[in-house]
Amino acid sequence: MTQTRPRRRPLTHQEKLALQERKQRRREKMEESRELAKGPIDLTFCLLVMLLTAIGLVILLSASFPSAYYEKAPSRHNPLYYFEKQGVFAVLGTAVMLLVSKFNYQRLRGAGRALIYVSVIFLILVIIPHNPIAVTAKGATRWLKIGIQFQPSEIAKVAIITYFADSISRKKDKMRSFRYGVLPYAFILVVVAGLVAVEPHLSGAILILGAGAAMMLVGGINWIWVGTAAGAAVGMVYVALFVIGYNKSRVIYWLDPWADAADKGYQLSQSLITIGSGGLWGLGLGKSRQKFLFLPEEHNDFIFSIACEELGLVGAGIIMLLFAALILRGYWIALHTRDRFGTLLVVGFTTQLAVQVFLNISVVTGLLPTTGISLPFFSYGGTALLIQLAEMGVILSVSRQMKPTKAG
């Protein structure tokens, strides 16, 4: 026996008018958004991104040519191997950034949910034992190779920010309740960041948690939950660093890298030697000594150490000031957007950038234990650079629709 669906109550004349008015308002908002999307991008933010990318390529060329010449089997005796590959992605990424900046960011609404599903599937594929498409390097399985090699955690970062921005922007006052403003987002963060941490990729998990927490805070959650989450985060970091054996050794030799400078503390001790060798003004661009196979990961996670050695405290300080200017400009754009969705998008991507820069510089200078985290726009990694520049393109897209200001 088939069941028949109950008939819906026919709408009254007033309800039909109200529905038509809502549809008309949505059409008007979309039309207004399309017109505003034709406005100029924030030139200051764009120039800062391009300047950092260009400086990053120069430092990468200097830092990478010894290892490219001596170690890279596919192109042995080609000192430009890393630079050429990164240069292609930098040009492509800049084109993608400018292209994305022309899109109306409102079209990203709804894409976050699909990206969450895709990123979770990819993250599960990474941690499945003996998966033929998973790539393991230096004791961690963080990559998938499906035609191209990429880190699913990079997609997860974009997914979290896009979905949170769309969902939080619709809830408004509901964000102050635990049921609607904390629980669903905390669950998503725990699942996604947990999968990333299992790889293991602790720094990637921290980036996801940091961006998500910042967006929830801007979205209006109660400060009580912020304090609770901060306490829980401190507890989890303690467990990760002092209880789990994989990370415990890193903490021991972080506190005293000279205790085993030839083995466990080798990377950090060499990094500190590299930074100290630069002095105030540096040895000169291209004149680093430590990059000649003394400092591991000199063109990747520890590229800032080479910048310190060649450019000195002054040059490294200028690089940090440029990053600070970019981050502050990002938050300035967030303060001048026309809607909550744009504000949350910019806050998410800017916070992620800020946390990543802070963690990388803290690691290479010994302020924090060694973790595998790259320096945006500088470290070698084509797909990571491409995604970073695409994210900057989203911020530029939002900047087209900023509220008018007296001074930009």
From TrEMBL:
Its main location: membrane. Keywords: Cell cycle, Cell division, Cell membrane, Cell shape, Cell wall biogenesis/degradation, Glycosyltransferase, Membrane, Peptidoglycan synthesis, Transferase, Transmembrane, Transmembrane helix. GO terms for molecular function: lipid-linked peptidoglycan transporter activity; peptidoglycan glycosyltransferase activity. Residues 1-11 have a biased composition (Basic residues). It is found in: Cell membrane. InterPro entries: Cell_cycle_FtsW-rel_CS, FtsW, FtsW/RodA. One of its GO terms (biological process) is cell division. Residues 12-33 have a biased composition (Basic and acidic residues). One of its GO terms (cellular component) is plasma membrane. It is a multi-pass membrane protein. It comes from the Bacteria. The chain crosses the membrane at residues 43-66, 86-103, 115-134, 146-165, 177-196, 202-218, 225-246, 311-332, 344-365, 377-398. Pathway: Cell wall biogenesis; peptidoglycan biosynthesis. The keyword Nucleus does not apply. Its EC number is 2.4.99.28. It catalyses: [GlcNAc-(1->4)-Mur2Ac(oyl-L-Ala-gamma-D-Glu-L-Lys-D-Ala-D-Ala)](n)-di-trans,octa-cis-undecaprenyl diphosphate + beta-D-GlcNAc-(1->4)-Mur2Ac(oyl-L-Ala-gamma-D-Glu-L-Lys-D-Ala-D-Ala)-di-trans,octa-cis-undecaprenyl diphosphate = [GlcNAc-(1->4)-Mur2Ac(oyl-L-Ala-gamma-D-Glu-L-Lys-D-Ala-D-Ala)](n+1)-di-trans,octa-cis-undecaprenyl diphosphate + di-trans,octa-cis-undecaprenyl diphosphate + H(+). Residues 1-33 are annotated as: Disordered. PANTHER family: CELL CYCLE PROTEIN, PEPTIDOGLYCAN GLYCOSYLTRANSFERASE FTSW-RELATED. Belongs to the SEDS family. FtsW subfamily. Peptidoglycan polymerase that is essential for cell division. This is Probable peptidoglycan glycosyltransferase FtsW.
